[in-house]
Task: inverse folding
């Protein structure tokens, strides 16, 4: 549950509500109020709502109301300012809890409280103290662990389109991810979900939540739009304390970031700001960066914070502002394929379109297994050859293909059915993933394994 520093109100009460505009309240006659200040809004019927100051101009203050402005009467509303930004209690008491996007309990338990609080806006990480990501975070999903290994401190988004199982994949990553036996926690921030999707996510994460390793924030589609903007910030604040104070390796999964950006656009339009691309605010890049760049590893502090944001690309357009700007800030992407999904393959990750730019920092000798990077490179090369062969067969017919092209296509089929395709609740160890990878490579003759050392071929080639 959110709270303010000091437990009391540091400002006098203001009653001059100038205007209600969508989720925004404009107050007149304010003095000594600062940007991002927390406010308590009291309605005439005794109802209490909360808000954050977005802008101050002279004696005018623009306040975003977290619960929305529906039912508010400008003539019967008073505002009290806290004198400090919004803060949230932090600590291990969050683990195992299911809360709303504002941190209020959804699991029937008591509110989450504590003496130690942190500002929700977070603190910028000093670039001079930022350590490069290192060591793997294993997801138990073969196509990710083999070809696009997630690294502690990395931000690796999922790019999807409507109708694909990105939410299920994000939930499976949150349910199965581990840091090879070291203390590990997951914070899942769900934004704009339907009630059915929220039930699916709770079911997927039930076991991890019961084990006390997970914090789940759920913002529903019918919740106030302002809450959607607050949800990822609450999740990151809780995760930062778990990682950098308690020394855990924390994974933050955020879905769907497109819903978050649409909420940001709605608030921007209510404020009367000039729109930029696709009517999104011009500061969309910096706003996303203020979230994504809160993850990483910090010199002198224990733990790490890794991030997997999931987003849907409207009409599958990867140049849309949300995936486009996300791609600039993050270190790779997992791209889901509608074709693979239509053929019943889960997870439908397009291996050739996906990339983990920091994989070499988390995989290979001393981190996973000596042959891991070579096996991944050989697999991708064979998949690329298979794609070329399929394109060629569409031009000249499959009967005209050579032996090498036919082998490449057989390899692709074996890869999809043997290694890639696994159940949404199936978790594989890295040893099992690499065993299956070698089994698939067995479709190719030894002479074609040019990217793998001879000693590894002698040891693992079936």
Result:
């Amino acid at each position: 549950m959110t709270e303010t520093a000091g437990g009391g109100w540091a400002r006098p009460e203001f009653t001059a509500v100038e205007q209600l505009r969508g989720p925004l309240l404009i107050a007149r006659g304010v003095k000594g109020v600062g940007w991002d200040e927390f406010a308590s809004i009291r309605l005439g019927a005794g109802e209490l709502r909360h808000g954050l100051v977005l802008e101050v101009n002279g004696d005018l203050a623009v306040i975003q109301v977290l619960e929305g402005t529906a039912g508010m009467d400008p003539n019967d509303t008073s505002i009290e300012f806290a004198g400090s930004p919004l803060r949230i209690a932090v600590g291990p008491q969050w683990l195992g809890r299911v809360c709303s996007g504002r941190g209020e309990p959804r699991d029937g338990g008591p509110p989450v409280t504590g003496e130690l609080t942190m500002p929700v806006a977070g603190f910028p990480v000093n670039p001079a103290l930022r350590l490069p990501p290192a060591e793997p975070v294993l997801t138990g999903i073969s196509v990710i662990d083999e070809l696009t290994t997630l690294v502690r401190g990395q931000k690796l988004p999922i790019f999807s389109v409507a109708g694909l199982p990105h939410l299920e994949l994000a939930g499976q990553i949150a349910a199965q991810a581990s840091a090879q036996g070291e203390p590990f926690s997951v914070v899942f921030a769900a934004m704009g979900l339907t009630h059915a999707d929220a039930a699916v996510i709770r079911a997927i994460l039930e076991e991890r939540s019961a084990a006390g390793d997970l914090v789940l924030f759920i913002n529903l589609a019918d919740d106030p739009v302002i809450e959607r903007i607050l949800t990822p910030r609450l999740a990151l604040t809780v995760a930062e304390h778990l990682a950098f104070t308690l020394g855990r390796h924390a994974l933050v999964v955020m879905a769907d970031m497109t819903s978050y950006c649409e909420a940001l656009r709605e608030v921007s339009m209510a404020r009367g700001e000039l729109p930029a691309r696709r009517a999104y605010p011009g500061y969309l890049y910096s706003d996303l960066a203020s979230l994504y760049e809160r993850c990483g590893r910090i010199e002198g502090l224990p733990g790490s914070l890794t991030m997997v944001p999931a987003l849907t690309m409207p009409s599958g357009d990867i140049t849309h502002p949300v995936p486009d700007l996300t791609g600039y800030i993050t270190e790779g992407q997992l791209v889901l394929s509608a074709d693979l999904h239509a053929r019943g393959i889960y997870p439908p990750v397009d291996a050739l379109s996906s990339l983990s730019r920091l994989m070499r920092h988390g995989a290979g000798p001393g981190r996973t297994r000596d042959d891991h990077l070579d096996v991944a490179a050989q697999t991708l090369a064979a998949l690329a050859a298979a794609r070329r062969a399929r394109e060629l067969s569409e031009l000249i017919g499959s009967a005209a293909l050579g032996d090498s092209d036919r082998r490449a296509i057989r390899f692709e089929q074996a890869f999809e059915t043997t290694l890639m395709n696994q159940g949404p609740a199936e978790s594989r160890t890295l040893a099992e993933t690499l065993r299956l990878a070698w089994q698939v490579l067995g479709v190719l003759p030894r002479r074609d394994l040019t990217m793998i050392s001879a000693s590894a071929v002698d040891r693992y080639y079936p």
User: Anything to note?
Assistant: The chain has a mean pLDDT of 91. The two ends are 56 Å apart (CA to CA). The chain has 14 helices and 22 strands. The longest strand covers residues 48-57.
